[in-house]
Amino acid sequence: MTKKIDPCTLVLFGASGNLSRIKLMPGLFRLDAAGRLPDHMAILSVGRSEVSREAWQADIKSMLDAKFKNGYDAKVFERFIARNHYQANPPADPDAYKKLQATLSDEKTFPQNLAYFLSVRPTDFAPIVAKLAGLGLVDESKYWRRVLIEKPFGTDLASAQALQAELTKYLKESQIYRIDHYLGKSALQNVMLTRFTNTMFEPLWNNEHIDHVQITNNEILGVGERTTFYDATGALRDMVQSHLLQTLALVAMEKPKDLKPESIRAEKIKLLESIRPIPVNELNKHAFRAQYAAGRVCVADGHGENVPGYLEELAKDGVTESVTETYAALKLFIDNPRWKGVPFYVRTAKRMHEGNTAISIRFKKAPMQLAEGQHQNWLTLNIQPRECIKMEIESKIPGLDIATRTLSIDAPQRQPGDETIDSYESLMLNLMEGDPSLYLHISEVEAQWRLVDPVVKAWIADKSPVHQYKAGSRDPGESSVIFESQDQFWRYSIELGGDKH
């Protein structure tokens, strides 16, 4: 269903950064090519350096050339490039924001509905909003004004609430769009629709039929050049607090009364606030952490590559000790009637044997058990790299004997000819449409930090050596300490029956 977008101006702060060059500009171009941008829509890129409009437009062309190796439509390019303008905003210029105000006051060029995309450091969010507000540039008395803020939103509950307090001096909650780019992924959006548009799933989506749920994000890559950031953050704050808890909310929430943004948000908030706090006095039964050691990983061409361990990478920056986790796994329970007693296992790790993001649901044992060790049914919703839905069921082996084997029903979500949409394209479109359903409400942010904070603090305080796992290996065997029963195991992406080895 296509929504009408008002004439508007997208003001892009941090326009010369990597995110803008690799994702945002190419994404906006694709939206234009698809006919999804309004005719009267301008893009004002804001950067630190003085650059002429012509030079900036030439730079945009180089971004598009790098992204679209097979070329692109010349007419669309002409239309898109005409939308683009540039505004210098040097940090040392005390009048920079007054100059921005003067530029935006040209109503013939810049429609007055304004969407600000802050692709900048988190420490710059509040100062930028304060300066815009001081010049009336977020006032909604005549036109809508929205501000998109990139992750992370705080580094703990206290900092998130402090940032919220600063922003809400000038903005209403309805004006704040906190982006989690995972929520823009088509396969993740499909989770809710898979549940609620299929009669065969929803009646089974409860503690009577489901044994447990696993939500996984594993990467082959290490921390790379991000050692300083990563050592101050860790896997729990980088991935679990945001992406994976949002995924859990979509998997477990109740059916919204309709598909309006406020209805979807309300159910997500309710679910996140229903997650039981992790008991810190029994943390080792509910949480596990580890760091990757030197090992060998599989690279793109199928060959192996020897890679250093996390502590070795830190040593290059002069850091000799660290308890920061590159592997984090949590066991969570949801205190509501639907999910009472069902464990949700959330895990994320770097330098694993495979890169995969998936939701794996294991059902309880079938009413008829023909043999010891008979496989239980699994439903896997794979998010990336392959978007698919996979079911594993038991079926009779043809022949004289009564015996079953596991059949895998694998349905690719993406069919030939389907659009390939980057998550940022979807989210930028939602920003201009005024649809916040895939953005985080402050109540979601607070609930997520409230859950994760005690674990982060306990792990930071515990200076004992962190468990090591070889780069390129599977989950550390010791991580099974968080499982509720001995027959539970980590599920991987492709093995029939969930091979444990």
List keywords for this structure.
13 helices, globular, alpha/beta, 501 residues, single chain, Dihydrodipicolinate Reductase, domain 2, Rossmann fold, 32% helix
As for the number of domains, it is 2
Q: Runs with pLDDT <50, length 5+?
A: 495-501
> Which architecture name of the largest domain does CATH use?
2-Layer Sandwich
What does the radius of gyration come to?
Answer: 24 Å
Q: What is the CATH homology-level superfamily of the largest domain?
A: Dihydrodipicolinate Reductase, domain 2
Query: How would the global form be characterised?
Result: globular
Description:
This protein has 2 domains: about 10-180, NAD(P)-binding Rossmann-like Domain (Rossmann fold, 3-Layer(aba) Sandwich), CATH 3.40.50.720; about 185-365 and about 415-425 and about 440-480, Dihydrodipicolinate Reductase, domain 2. The protein contains 13 helices and 18 strands. The chain has helices at about 20-35, 55-65, 75-85, 95-105, 125-135, 155-165, 185-195, 225-250, 260-270, 285, 310-315, 425-435, 440-460, and strands at about 10-15, 40-45, 85-90, 115-120, 145-150, 175-180, 210-220, 285-295, 295-300, 305, 325-330, 345-350, 355-365, 380-385, 390-395, 405-410, 440, 465-470. The strands form 3 sheets. A 9-stranded mixed β-sheet has the order 16-15-14-13-7-12-11-8-18. The longest helix has 26 residues, at about 225-250. The chain is globular. The two termini are about 45 Å apart. The model is unreliable at about 495-500 (pLDDT under 50).
